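Tutorial, part two.
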Amino acid sequence: MSDTSDEFWMRRALAEAARGQGAVEPNPMVGAVVVRDGTLVGVGHHEKFGGPHAERHALERAGEAARGATLYVTLEPCCHHGKTPPCTDAVVDAGISRVVAAMRDPFPRVAGGGFQVLRQAGIQVDIGICKAEARALNAPYLRRLEQARPWVIAKWAMTLDGKIAARTGQSAWISSDRSRALVHELRGRVDAIVVGIGTALADDPLLTARPAGLRTATRVVFDKNGRLPVKTRLVQTNDEAPVLVVAGPEAPEDRVDVLRLVGCEVLQLPGRSPLPFLQEMAKRNMTNILVEGGGTLLGSFFDHRVVDEVDVFIAPIIEGGRHEFTPVRGQGVNSIAEGLRLKDPVTSIVDGDVRIQGRIPLREHGFESSARPG
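Running the prediction step on this input gives:
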């Protein structure tokens, strides 16, 4: 089979894998197709965490047609017992003659072991077709495994002249109804939604996905001194979605006790860097985190080079004035050349708003581009 045919079927598997976004985390998104004599005979993806993996779905749909066929899969088949049996057993038992995988799985209990099992069973294994696309698809999963932190998405809405609120602090609503609906869709597939205490006090947000999405995100407030009032909508609805307050060690003990008493989790961390928080979230198997502001908090995440992706809505509104309500504050950079530049940004129009989405290249985080964990 030609390389061109391999790429065609692998891209079909990648498209199938993407259907699991928001439902499979902390597992990776995986797609698989079974091809016999140039004809598609089975297709499947990992549909939900704890459920059958992509290979098993595809092989089940292929049935007897899988014998002697080629399996295209976007990630190395697992070879260990987890919530499901090893996929390598299913591949061998189905009589697959060739496996084409986009990439190796860095998960320690797999990490090349799946390929070894398949080769020992006499199956031809080819690796690397559409590897870059596969890594891009599962960049959040890879970030958590390889750098012990979740994927961080920074989101904000602003006016054409770069303001996120009027000089009074009022911000409802800068973006259009459709733009806000898209943000709710995004909220519905992440593990945590993060704001600073200033935003929590000014806006009294719920930070939930409406309508509900595939995931119920933990709502996080960076609140150094434990100031979050118990009458806020966040605290009053903590039976619907968890609330985590990230406080400093200097937070008054009575404030910490009150927040815990009303059902909030309080995590006390030293220093200004958000990295210890992100490392803790990775330990909890969180894969995607959405940081919604305000400017001080976003500035801290950008200053510490821990933002992986941005999602910005620019409304056709000009506010004017000189005040502090800008989307990203922090220390910033000394020159434009030092600024973070998005890689291959995507621009779209949403009911008059301009939406810009893009990822921050690895080199902007201070890593060598050849490492490519994302």
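The chain has twelve helices and 14 strands. In part three we will examine how such features are distributed along the chain.
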